[in-house]
Amino acid sequence: MLPESAVREAEIHAAEHELYPPSPEVVRSAWVQDWESIARRAEADPEGFWAERALELEWFSPWNQVLDDSEKPFYRWFVGAKVNIVHNCLDRHMKTWRKNKLALIWESEKGEVRTFSYFALNREVSKFANVLKSMGIRKGDRVTIYMGRVPELPIAMLACAKIGAIHSVVYGGFSVEALHGRIEDSQSKLAITCDGAFLNGKIVELKQIMDEALKRSPTVENVIVVKRTGREVNMEAGRDLWYHDLMGLPIANGKCETEVMDAEDPLYILYTSGTTGKPKAVLHVHGGYMVGIYTTLKYVFDIKDEDRWWCAADPGWVTGHSYIVYAPLLCGATSLMYEGAPTYPYPNRWWQMVEKYGITILYAAPTAIRGLMRFGEAWPNRYDLSSLRLLGSVGEPINPEAWRWYYRVIGKERCPIMDTWWQTETGMFMITPLPCVALKPGSGTRPFFGIQADVVDEEGKPVKNGDEGYLVIKTPWPAMLRTIYGDPDRYVEQYWSKYPGLYLTGDSAKKDDDGYFWIIGRVDDVIKVSGYRLGTAEIESALVSYPAVAEAAAIGLPHDVRGHTIYAYVLLKTGQAPSDDLAETLRLHVGHEMGPIAKPEKIIFVDKLPKTRSGKIMRRVLKARAMGLPEGDLTTLED
Ligand code: WT7
Fold this sequence. Notes:
Distance between the termini: 22 Å
Bound molecules: 5'-O-[(S)-butoxy(hydroxy)phosphoryl]adenosine
Strand order of the largest sheet: 12-11-8-6-7-14-15-23
Strand content: 15-25%
Helix content: 25-40%
Number of strands: 30
């Protein structure tokens, strides 16, 4: 199906019969020791299973219905209940000993440390929530957050949620046009940013990018700026305010009532790239999302009070939303958040922190593992990694070679690897092992309790075991996206129209004879670069916004470390001559508009792009050609 299927197929073939049984030491004390019995129970009565999990958390008032499917595919969970996710993340812990437990340990790239107990975090969040209220932010208002990885980022998210405002976090690696588009679509009233961010020893000029984006976005009335780098930035009188000044005002009181929300009220929107056009605002809600992420983190990573959890993702993507910010706090865990890159200044950075903080669970992306693997075992071997109990992987398929390295060199063959498959849209882990499940390198094993997934053909019929097909989800789950904010038709069209009643993931996969799922890759126009999700359409529109460019096509080609890398095919306007300088200018232009991660590795000038007779670019043909693979069925090619 996909040009790279053959490569992945060979990996799967080699690893399909390589079984790693669960570790008795890990299972002995785990929340879940017997997968089958709970899976059977959850399959027979998913609503009962989720309702029981929901009762482990606090609700202002109970639901009268667990699942309402009367307006499919607009499913509603815990209907009629009143709740606020922040009440369960913070307020709830103020009544117990956890109030003095560490919630967050933050380390900067330079090695500075800041820590927050649950009490201290609750106080900061309450203070900032009061600041937001004093600036006129109310329930339902949208707030764009564009920051580096600093503690004020989760504080800002939680403060919004506490007062019922909808946060829209834009990843700090995005740039002007990507930021502008997201502010404009969400109609945000307020933006929160930093003067800059440190990454890889360099400074990312966040405020400058925000200023440029705001020239194109009129809805934002105020900008709150967190001081991080201390470098001089432009502060527009009447619009821009320093976070630290506001937090020093009497209005920034440490007590703030948590807003009573309906279980189905929006919590946040998060933009993600889809099949065509602009990125879509995936909407998550307070109630079901809370239950889904709490349950999955607790069971899959077996979170206990004594754990030190480290999700090494960026809070700006869904992994960070669910599993850096919300779920660890719901579980009452202690988390580490690290500001910088894994290899700066040296590739010992991660292992040093595992040793220093006694990290027990590390959850990371395959691209980071492969990046660190390149530097050899000597780096991790210099550190005591014996505190580790479980490892995790997320964001793209992990190749068995990287899996084995992670298992042997980092986990010392003691720590099971939870390879969690999920998406921005699913909100929570969907296909994932548990510590009590036997592993195969590169497989996410089976769907989580209460989730039904399958692999189907073009007509929606299940394919034979071992055959590649479309990965679909067959039943609703509590943390599922509720809609595309402002565009419900697109929600239906994108996810529920190819096969009515089945949720389309956009991934291709296969299932083996043990019922284990193997993800192959995206079958739509989404490219995963270093685990980051980008749309070909966004990259192409950035290219076409450059005056000399007439048309462009972007594709992702397999890459050893990054998973995929971007190649762009560019057709120039008449009278424009291709040159190496122009290619470099175009790369920089994409970087300036979209962000460094979207910069094509290579720009290839062409006279013509392969298109269907209806004018759609056939990226599959470009990809096969670039990889030297057979080009497949060309009957729809125009010429
Ligand atoms: C896409 C979703 C899930 C949080 C981060 C990414 C790919 C994700 C895995 C995995 C194979 C994976 C899929 C999916 N993906 N996790 N464990 N194995 N592929 O969220 O940015 O919405 O991307 O990431 O292709 O559809 P996202």
